[in-house]
Specification:
There is one protein chain. By secondary structure, the chain is α/β, with parallel strands linked by helices. Helix content is about 35%, strand content about 10%. The protein has 2 domains: about 190 residues, TIM Barrel, CATH 3.20.20; about 60 residues, Type Iii Antifreeze Protein Isoform Hplc 12. It contains 10 helices and 9 strands. Helix 4 packs parallel to helix 5 and helix 7 runs parallel beside helix 8. The longest helix is centred in the C-terminal third of the chain and has 18 residues.
Length: about 280
């Protein structure tokens, strides 16, 4: 009874053994996947679940290790991975604050400070209202480390939003087709969806930019379309400027509208035709 899953949306009634038998990555796949990733210029890594898996991955010169959410309480496993001095990616899907701190302390005891924490909710698929992305910034400040997102919601909105809040890494499940019967197909992205997520994140990264009030060259040109003061009726020399013959309209060839109150009641220095941008030379002070 201890090993039967209860209280989940997708896997109730299954044993942990049966679930992970379907979900685990066969060790022999690593050779081909490593070769393909390196050929494509991709960084590959894997999630070990015991010491023997780390030993195996070390023989493949695995460049980093991902500690899954349910293993964050396995301090001996984290210490063993940290001993390799490789970067560690630690998910926090079931973790309390003290669990996260203990995991980080385990890494520090091995003089491994290359750790990124992933905000995560171990509920599959995750409801949007349970994700609490605003925790990302607090997590980065509280633990003084890089943060990212391990996402199990449907769609791509949550990863894209996470990037705006400081996520430096996004983990998302991947499936070639939802016609394939896998335990995670309900919250995995197809190739087209994954590509769209990456495209959206890269665009958002560009859009985040920097804090600046400087205008781009295009904005400077756009200012030509701003409002300014124009004479909107023919005005004779000596005639008074009023709201009937001076208005704030586009484009920006006349005086700025902020001078309207100053100009009202003043007189024209000469005859002015309708449609003329108002300038100081036309006003008799």
């Amino acid at each position: 009874e201890y090993f039967v899953i209860k209280g989940t949306k997708l896997w109730d009634g299954q044993t942990l053994y049966d679930l992970y038998k379907k979900a685990y990555m066969p060790w022999e796949w690593h050779y081909e996947l490593k070769e393909l990733a390196e050929k494509l210029g991709l960084v590959w890594f894997s999630s070990p679940f015991d010491f023997s898996a780390i030993d195996f991955l070390e023989k493949l010169n695995c460049p980093a290790y991902k500690i899954a959410s349910f293993e964050i309480v396995d301090i001996p496993l984290i210490e063993y991975a940290a001993k390799t001095k490789k970067p560690l990616i630690i998910s926090t899907g079931i973790a309390r604050l003290d669990d996260i701190q203990e995991a980080l302390d385990a890494c520090k005891r091995q003089n491994n400070f290359e750790v990124i924490l992933l905000k995560c909710v171990s509920d599959y698929p995750t409801d949007y209202e349970d994700i609490n992305l605003l925790t990302l910034k607090n997590m980065a400040e509280t633990f003084d480390c890089l943060v990212g997102l391990s996402d199990h919601s449907k769609g791509i909105e949550v990863p894209v939003a996470a990037v705006t809040l400081g996520a430096k890494l996004v983990e998302k499940h991947f499936i070639l087709s939802r016609n394939i019967d896998t335990p995670d197909k309900e919250f995995s992205l197809t190739p087209d969806e994954f590509k769209e997520m990456v495209r959206a994140i890269r665009n958002v990264e560009k859009a985040l930019g920097k804090v600046t009030y400087e205008l781009t060259e295009r904005q400077k040109k756009a200012r030509k379309l701003a409002r300014s003061l124009f004479v909107v009726k023919d005005v004779k020399k000596g005639e008074t400027f009023t709201l009937e013959n001076v208005r704030s309209i586009r484009p920006a060839d006349g005086l700025p509208p902020k001078y309207l109150k100053l100009i009202l009641g003043k007189k024209a220095k000469k005859d002015i035709k309708k449609g003329t941008p108002l300038s100081w030379e036309l006003i008799d002070f």
